[in-house]
Amino acid sequence: MKTIAITLALILLAGTLVVPIGFSEAQVSELTVPNPPKNLTVTAVSRNQTNLSWTAPVSSTADQVNGYKIEIRPFCSGSFSILVTNTTNTTTTYSNTGLAEGICYEYQVFALNPAGTGNASNIASATTWTVPSAPTSLTAIPVSQSQINLNWTASSNTGGTLLTGYKIERRDSCAGSFSTLVANTSNTSTTYSNTGLVNGTCYEYRVFAHNVVDTSLASNNVTATTLQNPAPSTTSPPSAPTGLSVTALFNTALKLTWSAPSNTGGTPILGYQIQRNGTTIVNNTGNTQTNFTNFGLLPAHQQTYRVAAWNSAGLGPYSSNATGTTNNQVIIIPTSTSNLGQQVSSFVHQYNDLFKMQRDETIKKIKECYERVRNATPENRKQIKTDCKDELKAITEQYKDARKQFKEDFKVFRDAAKTLIKVAKENKIVTKADVKELKTELKSFAKDTKKIEKEFKKELKELKKESKKTKKDKHDDKGDKHDDKGDKHDDKEDD
């Protein structure tokens, strides 16, 4: 290795070479700058601390390293700045304290020796912990004269560390101030049964998530009224749903459909409980829709489901079991032109169903978010917007892979169909009119899917206009208040 002149590290005093402590003159004359440190990792350990660890440079001069320089880049963007000029020791760990909460930090490390500073290590990053996002989709179901069951969806963002439990608040008679029902559930279960309540009384609830940093913002508020005591003789849980069927939507999802109970128990249906293989996957859908799509399944796997209906009197009996199997990863290649049109129509119908589900869920979430932002205090509005972005992103990711796989499957089908049509035409199995009709069917898939995507974008645009209109109304309200103050001032001057 070519030696490097050490003009900055060596000083000539009275013709004598001054050598750093621990090095011989021969070592110094042959010393080169060290290689980069290896395997830099960064781990967040609290809301204001990250821990760094790396491997010393691997070279003949590794044992001559006498310190490390550490650089930092806050927000994981922009330029690096020096965090530590020289650690003055060979320890390959470092704790960076006093950081801001919930911020991404990037680091790189350089090894030092008397010859100078080596090249940078790999870049590694970590985000300091922060409070979790608010729980969502809180529901409250009265199950008796003295009990209400709560169910919610866990925080989409845990703040970089594990959730440690939930805080539950209740407002008796749905009026006055909230009081703490449970300070910390000390577990991550997303259900809770509130017992010992007064019959025929309204209760309002909200839920907060805990992690080691602090407590999240509140979930949505929900109300429920315990059943009357005694319950009216005309009210009872609904009968079982009927006609449950399960069909494969594609290779990672099954769609359930059923008919509503013939007897609602004298009171409206509030939602449905869905079980898969004997385990509850949805406690209460919170709506009267008689269909549900179970995503995130494995290809070519069989699942068994049953469904029961909720009303204000409680949960009714389950439907009969129904079994379905997800599609295999490999799609079926067409072998005949006789039913190509029907197969293409089936593809279009399935894709439109998938996109409609994503559209409906997205629009529902956007409306919910607008309402939460409108009702939020100024200090909470920013966090709610962040939570909403995370929730909308989760919906997009949920459907992204399914739609991509679906389009890939259709491409394989389409290419095979085109080849089949060509062969059939060459062998005079089909007429020119048949070929034209089949090609038109293949083109209809792209045309129909673009149509529903266009409708989706139009609905989103209208929602944004509605949001801007709400903001304008609030601004006008402020102007009216200002005018009122001016009128009062004029009245005083007239007096």
Mind explaining what this structure looks like?
With 495 residues, the chain is of the alpha+beta class. Helices cover 31% and strands 29% of the residues. The protein contains four helices and 25 strands. It has helices at residues 25-30, 340-375, 378-426, 432-494, and strands spanning 12-13, 16-17, 38-44, 50-55, 67-74, 81-84, 93-96, 104-113, 116-120, 124-127, 136-142, 148-153, 163-172, 179-182, 191-194, 202-211, 222-225, 242-250, 253-259, 271-276, 279-282, 291-294, 302-311, 314-315, 322-325. The strands form seven sheets. Strands 5, 6, 8, 9 and 10 form a five-stranded antiparallel β-sheet that branches. A hairpin with a 5-residue loop joins strand 11 and strand 12. The longest helix is centred in the C-terminal third of the chain and has 63 residues, at 432-494. Mean pLDDT is 78; it is low at 1-23, 473-481 and 489-495.
Chain-wise SSE layout:
Blueprint: E1 12-13, E2 16-17, H1 25-30, E3 38-44, E4 50-55, E5 67-74, E6 81-84, E7 93-96, E8 104-113, E9 116-120, E10 124-127, E11 136-142, E12 148-153, E13 163-172, E14 179-182, E15 191-194, E16 202-211, E17 222-225, E18 242-250, E19 253-259, E20 271-276, E21 279-282, E22 291-294, E23 302-311, E24 314-315, E25 322-325, H2 340-375, H3 378-426, H4 432-494
Antiparallel strand pairs: 1-2, 3-4, 4-7, 5-6, 5-8, 8-9, 8-10, 11-12, 12-15, 13-14, 13-16, 16-17, 18-19, 19-22, 20-21, 20-23, 23-24, 23-25
Helix pairs in contact: 2-3, 2-4, 3-4
In short:
By secondary structure, the chain is of the alpha+beta class. The protein is 31% helix and 29% strand.
